[in-house]
Amino acid sequence: MSKNFRCVLVLILVTALLVPVLAVGCAESQTQGQQQYEKAQALEEQHMLTKATAAYTSAMAQLEKEGKAVLATEARMALQRIELYQVTYSDLAADVKKKLAEAYPAVAQAERDKWVSSGEMEKATWDGKVYYFNQAVENIATRHFDVSYLNQQKNALLGDFATNLINTVIRRPTVTWQPYSNPHTYLGTEAVNVPRTELPKTGVFKMWFPLPVVTGPQDSVTISSITPANYVKQPPSINGPISLAYMEVPLDQLQSDLNVSVQFQFTHYQENFQVDRNNLGAYDKSSALYKQYTKSYGNTYISPSIRETAKKVVGSEKNPYLQAKKLYDYILKDIKYSFMPHATMWPRGERESVYVHRMKRGDCGAQSMYFSALCRSLGIPARTTGGWQLLMGDFAGHFWAEFYLPNYGWVPVDPTAADMADWTNALTDQQRQEYKQFFFGNQDPLRCNVQLDVDEPLIPPATEEVFLPLAIQNPVATCSTMTGSPGVVLLEHYTLHAQLLSPAGP
User: Fold this and answer.
1) Bridge partner residues of 388 (DSSP)
2) Which of 137, 233, 283, 374 has a beta carbon 3.0–4.6 Å from 310's, enabling a disulfide?
3) Dist. CA 234–CA 265, nearest whole Å
4) How far apart are the C-alpha atoms of 407 and 144, rounded to whole Å?
5) Number of domains in the chain
6) How far apart are CA 304 and CA 480, in angstroms?
7) pLDDT > 70 in the chain, percent
8) pTM for this one?
């Protein structure tokens, strides 16, 4: 139940206990726009989203006429919230069955139908119909490995990639005292090309573009160009907790399509931490770092159940390094990789770590937030960091975790990269085990950090809600004159590419 609707419900219940005259007086004090807004809220609460959309649209127009700007903005944000929900849960059962048949033709229809009827595929009900999560079909392959193996091309591709990484990175000789080696330098290019017809005639279109941030395994960050430069309102924050280029586009001056390009360069190192478990050093529990990364906040939320699970997993183990390893192994064993309905989670207030704990599945960022929450509950500083990975040669969104050891610094952990070993049967058992164990305390150089922690706020902070306000893998946007989601429009017209400058191969 939304906060605003709870307030309305309380008002209705209280008013019902008063004398009729007072009730009538309360109703008469409301404007037409406020009444339409409350009607829209009730429809949204009932998940009658098409009717709620019409009601919010009408309410917003009326509220603007009445000069009630705050409530009009609330109506506009509700419209964007509904749009994200409908896009996320967009497939009827017939659509899902058709997609399953196309994706997994070698699987018997009875088995495919069972995936739908068993309840394993996430779904939601709106407008009185059951709709399925728009990535439910893709999730089957990472939950049923035998199904994944049927795609021979993908199976071979993953096998070749993992084998190559084992031979060129995982088994690469390293120096005990040198955690960073094997530097890779990349040239990155971001671009957006939004048709003028998809933007309002007036207002300001605000954008935040993710960029490389300077951190332990990443340096030599330079922003080569931002075009057009006059859109930039705040310089890139490459030395802060999150790296962004902030831009504002005055739409009344935009005569043609919105074209923006950003070019940058950075160097990312391979990480190899050879930890002496008997010489970890002591945590300074009074330090800002310790307090920040052991507390429960944002999407790295520590529920009582998460805390109890962490205690159960580590048992009597007191060494923080070995505790973290037990938590890592627990996630690899019990948590399945799965795409998630992120865009509908933050409006309903569900934390990423809590979702993974409840569902026993999650994607890269959510798995890492869960690992971080488990660590924090035991007093081990941890965070979820990342931005992009280049495992297949070009940029793709990816996040991973780090936990802190006093004598070593931030130690990388990537349960999702480790999961990939199970998505192919082209590896031997020894290779699979070697691959999985590498991603605890080690990391390949095929990465780009854009933020140190997923719950870092935008710079400058957004004054309105943004699409998916965590894990900034793509540009985000706001626009107070736009009814639809600015972030969705921007994402539809966004491209990101990388060029490896050195060395010639991984």
Assistant:
1) 397, 448
2) 374
3) 19
4) 41
5) 4
6) 39
7) 93
8) 0.90
Residues with Cβ within 8 Å of 26's Cβ and at least 6 positions away in sequence, in order, are 11, 15
pLDDT in tens, 224-281: 999 999 999 998 889 999 999 999 999 999 999 999 999 999 999 999 999 999 999 9
CB atoms within 10 A of CB 463: 9
Dist CA 368 CA 444 (whole Å): 17
CA–CA gap between residue 320 and residue 310 (Å, rounded): 12
Q: Per DSSP, what are the bridge partners of residue 448?
A: 388
Cα torsion angle, 446, 451, 454, 460, sign: negative
Note whether 342 and 477 are same-domain residues.
no
Per-residue pLDDT at 467 exceeds 90: no
Q: Are 225 and 238 in contact (CB under 8 A)?
A: no
| Token pair of 400 as six digits | 């991973």
Q: How many Cα atoms occupy the beta-carbon half-sphere of 132 within 13 Å?
A: 24
Residue 107 — left, alpha, or beta (φ > 0 → left; ψ -120 to 50 → alpha)? beta
Q: How many Å is the maximal CA-CA distance in the chain? A: 84
Q: What's residue 3's pLDDT?
A: 40
Show the tokens assigned to 257.
């399509």
270 three-state secondary structure: strand
The domain of 435 spans: 156-177+276-451
Tokens of 304: 């009582």
The answer to whether residue 205 scores a pLDDT higher than 50 is: yes
Summarize pLDDT for 68-117 with one digit per residue, the tens.
Answer: 999 999 999 999 999 989 999 999 999 999 999 999 999 999 999 999 99
Of 370, 341, 333, 423, nearest in space to 142 by CA: 423
pLDDT value at residue 345: 81
Residues 319 and 285 in one domain: yes
CA 335 to chain centre: 17
Same domain, residue pair 46 and 128: no
Q: Residues 365, 388: one domain?
A: yes
* 393 and 296 co-located in one domain: yes
- Distance from chain centroid for Cα 280: 32
Question: Structure tokens of 111?
Answer: 């088995």
Please check whether residues 209 and 249 belong to one and the same domain. Answer: yes
Which pLDDT belongs to residue 360?
A: 95
Closest to 321 (Cα-Cα) out of 258, 409, 391, 191: 409
CA dist 440 → 231, 390, 400, 401 (Å): 42, 19, 11, 10
For residue 440, what is the DSSP state? B
Q: Do both 290 and 343 map to the same domain? A: yes
